[in-house]
């Protein structure tokens, strides 16, 4: 069996080597001739799987994308050709939810905001949106949830979510059809609904926000002396060529990497591996946990009562007073032991002009999730909250 796999799908050899011959390809450079005699094609979002690509696919039985987004796949065509298709739903949901909270904490620090009295609007409450909601619930943050495909008293209209959100975060798929298309969901008409001091985060798809209209709105705020939007953009209309005029107006810029934790990417590989095994009748004998390396910082100890800094091994000892930091500051300190989104903002600014958007994504440094850090604490309430947020925790006496 021949398995063709995007070069940016981690651990593919480890998972697939005993199922067949594994060959790698560059995501944007895949050409139809490379699909001759291929049985399984595993892509990421930058490969358009359409009629043009499949002209020479004489044996293709399986297409998988190691992503949740499916807007690059002609699913109807695959169904017509009897080619099995799967995405990897949920694989990077935790990665994006962690990234967005990281962004919120940095926006809060940069613009000197307290998150505790803010209303966060989540637009699109699927795998990512609901993961984000769960974490923000732990932090007791007031929410507005907007998802027209879901019902219940907790859901609100887009208009209300835009009007009432101090922080608005987009987590919809990109759709141009259906009852509630998301292409330019935020546009010249409803941008006017945003609060004066709003924080706006997009880690969904660039085209969900009309980037030209956003720029015009930002400029119009300036001329009418309204406060600037506090903007964090991970996704851009027209990738890999983002609208550069938006960059100076964004507190945080990144190159579509919200889902790029090592765990998030690797879970995508594992999900596809399980589907391939099922479809071709193999036993799924490999598990992701056997491949993931230890993080650089694995432990930190928080002592609220008389810690003396004497913890063992490679653990990092935060000062005794850390436990008395404001919750927002403590959380930011812990999260930034794992990863600080300002690193990705710096990569974006340093490399976009010369190396380009795709280069930043392809050379993305390893980033771990909060679960890679064990927080030892003698405060059971704190431990419980940190566990609910996704850290690994241990109690100390
Ligand atoms: N920046 C990144 O690195 C990154 C990573 C992962 C996913 N994404 C993007 O985020 C999107 C969401 O991911 P997910 O895993 O949560 O997907 P999902 O399919 O689980 O959830 C999407 C949710 O959006 C809702 N929705 C659809 N149309 C809507 C509309 N008009 N208004 C409000 N809600 C609407 C759906 O009902 C669904 O609940 C993906 O489709 C992908 O485009 C980006
Ligand atoms: O849709 C997704 O899952 C994400 O946007 C994903 O992180 C995209 O990554 P890519 O496939 O472009 O490498």
UniProtKB/TrEMBL annotation:
Cellular compartment(s): Cytoplasm
PROSITE patterns the record matches: D_2_HYDROXYACID_DH_3
A single GO molecular function term of this UniProt record: protein dimerization activity
Erythronate-4-phosphate dehydrogenase dimerisation domain sequence ranges: 326-390
Enzyme class, first EC level, given as a word: oxidoreductase
Active site: 205, 239, 256
GO annotation (BP), single: 'de novo' pyridoxal 5'-phosphate biosynthetic process
Record has Nucleus as a keyword: no
SUPFAM superfamilies for the chain: Formate/glycerate dehydrogenase catalytic domain-like, NAD(P)-binding Rossmann-fold domains
Main location: cytoplasm
One GO CC term, this protein: cytosol
Keyword annotations: Cytoplasm, NAD, Oxidoreductase, Pyridoxine biosynthesis
Quaternary structure and partners: Homodimer.
Purpose of the protein: Catalyzes the oxidation of erythronate-4-phosphate to 3-hydroxy-2-oxo-4-phosphonooxybutanoate.
Family of this protein: Belongs to the D-isomer specific 2-hydroxyacid dehydrogenase family. PdxB subfamily.
Name assigned to this protein: Erythronate-4-phosphate dehydrogenase
Organism: Psychrosphaera ytuae
């Amino acid at each position: 069996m021949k398995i063709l796999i995007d070069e940016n799908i981690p651990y593919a050899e480890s998972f697939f080597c005993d199922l067949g011959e594994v060959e790698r390809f560059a995501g944007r450079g895949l050409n139809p001739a490379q699909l001759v005699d291929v049985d399984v094609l595993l892509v990421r979002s930058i490969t358009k799987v359409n009629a043009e690509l499949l002209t020479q696919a004489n044996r293709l039985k399986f297409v998988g994308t190691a992503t949740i987004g499916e807007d690059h796949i002609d699913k109807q065509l695959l169904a017509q050709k009897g080619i099995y298709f799967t995405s990897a739903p949920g694989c990077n949901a935790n990665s994006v939810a962690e990234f967005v909270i990281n962004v919120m904490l940095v926006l809060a620090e940069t613009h000197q905001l307290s998150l505790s009295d803010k209303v966060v609007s989540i637009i699109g409450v699927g795998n990512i949106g609901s993961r984000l909601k769960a974490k923000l619930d732990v932090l007791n943050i007031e929410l507005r949830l907007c998802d027209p495909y879901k019902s219940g008293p907790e859901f609100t209209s887009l208009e209300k979510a835009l009007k009432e959100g101090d922080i608005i975060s987009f987590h919809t798929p990109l759709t141009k059809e259906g009852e509630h298309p998301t292409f330019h969901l935020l546009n010249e008409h409803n941008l006017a609904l945003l609060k004066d001091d709003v924080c706006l985060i997009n880690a969904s798809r660039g085209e969900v926000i009309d980037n030209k209209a956003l720029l015009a709105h930002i400029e119009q705020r300036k001329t009418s002396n309204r406060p600037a939007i506090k903007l964090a953009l991970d996704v851009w209309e027209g990738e890999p060529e983002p609208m550069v005029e938006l960059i100076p107006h964004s507190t945080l810029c990144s190159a579509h990497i919200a889902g790029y934790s090592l765990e998030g990417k690797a879970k995508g590989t594992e999900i596809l591996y399980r589907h391939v095994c099922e479809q071709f009748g193999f036993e799924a004998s490999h598990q992701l946990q056997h491949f993931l390396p230890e993080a650089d910082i694995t432990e930190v100890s928080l002592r609220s009562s008389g810690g003396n800094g004497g913890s063992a091994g490679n653990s990092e000892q935060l000062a005794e007073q850390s436990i008395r930091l404001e919750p927002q500051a403590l959380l930011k300190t812990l999260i930034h032991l794992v990863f600080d989104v300002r690193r990705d903002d710096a990569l974006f600014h340093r490399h976009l002009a010369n190396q380009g958007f795709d280069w930043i994504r392809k050379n993305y440094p390893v980033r771990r999730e909060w679960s890679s850090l064990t927080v030892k604490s003698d405060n059971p309430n704190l431990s419980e909250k940190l566990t609910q947020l996704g850290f690994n925790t241990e109690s100390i006496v």
